[in-house]
Amino acid sequence: MRSRCIWTPCKVLTPLSFKPSSFFTFSFSKQLLLPDKSIAAISSTRRGISSYPSLMASSPSLKDSVSTQNESTQKTQQPLQVAKRLEKFKTTIFTQMSSLAIKHGAINLGQGFPNFDGPEFVKEAAIQAIKDGKNQYARGYGVPDFSSAIAERFKKDTGLVVDPEKEITVTSGCTEAIAATMLGLINPGDEVILFAPFYDSYEATLSMAGAKIKCITLRPPDFAVPIDELKSAITQDTRAVLINTPHNPTGKMFSREELSTIASLCIENDVLVFTDEVYDKLAFEMDHISMASLPGMYERTVTLNSLGKTFSLTGWKIGWAIAPPHLTWGVRQAHSFLTFATSTPMQWAAAVALRAPESYYVELKRDYMAKKEILVEGLKAVGFKVFPSSGTYFVVVDHTPFGLENDIAFCEYLIKEVGVVAIPTSVFYLNPEDGKNLVRFTFCKDEGTLRAAVDRMKEKLKRK
């Protein structure tokens, strides 16, 4: 049995100065600079070691003072400032890899956004909502028609009847739903159990909430839940278990047996469950099971979901949380002070999307299964050891046949020498060593892009 891993904050480290020749520049609300470093340095995020700062925000006062200096005078940068609970986190791996894809002209099979557009009927609904003047603040917890559409869809999927007025909260993407749930229901010092590898926002938002993170590692080839480890991890301080099924990055789907065992442990120990189900319509080899639908679980479950993955509209950032009223209260309290309300016209269009005929979901699954086959067969032909993916649009592989020391080194080589982007999975673990042999590819791309990426790897990637 492996020892449990518990997150603890790292010490404050002194930031280094930046040189003017920065690697690339992002433009958000402030200018952000990332130094010219290898991916190995960039991706030290989860090691709790920051050898250099990944982000530099230039304030107006600093800009004004620098502009008055002679160009030959060395410019002094202000030290980075960040709360201790966030100092270990840098730019997300997805932003980093997508930027590197552009820099090197690589085919991006890393970040999970489609390179094709969402359905016309949904986009037309958004345009019509804008034209109809639905452009002011929405009700804080959601446009009523959209909340009703979520409830209707949830009943079709799970058989559960929920009150759209009291049990559904619309958020700015599932990422905000996750944040609102953590901040609204977790107290400082509460223990929360994660299954590694895990989506990176889980750790960051739990850190903001002051939680103590316990990690149960899912291991290849089947990434099964080690039930005995889970049993030993639950204590009187355990507040919640966070589940993602279908699972990013592995493509695993939690079986009914696994979910039932987790449910029994949660009921026995009075533990909540937060379940991220954004890939529920991308279940290929078994039916998706929502934890809330299991006996005795709705009253202790927050179900998190979004529009983006199912309708190829990731930029709309429309998500929601479904929970009984006593848990919805906490979610809504946090949501009120995070974003208050989500895009009004997009909510009206999202209601149209969720009422799509069942044929849409059948066609969606068929299209993705064809894409999956292209990538999986291609990766096998290249020489990877490919692990089964039952859901999501991700595939995890073992890169070690190609002789690189770890996932970071492999992804760096793959981008620069082969021209294809994958995601190093070590960033999804509290202990990066657990993921050093694995990388993640996505197949949410058009078939031509997938075939081109496979051809590049066949031509340039050689086993050692």
From TrEMBL:
Keywords annotated in UniProt: Aminotransferase, Pyridoxal phosphate, Transferase
Cofactor: pyridoxal 5'-phosphate
CDD domains: AAT_like
GO molecular function, one term: pyridoxal phosphate binding
Compositionally biased residues, Polar residues: 64-76
Domain spans labelled Aminotransferase class I/classII large: 107-456
GO cellular component, one term: cytoplasm
Residue ranges of the region described as Disordered: 55-76
Coiled-coil region: none
The organism's place on the tree of life at top rank: Eukaryota
InterPro entries: Aminotransferase_I/II_large, Kynurenine-oxoglutarate_AT, PyrdxlP-dep_Trfase, PyrdxlP-dep_Trfase_major, PyrdxlP-dep_Trfase_small
Name of the molecule in the record: Aminotransferase class I/classII large domain-containing protein
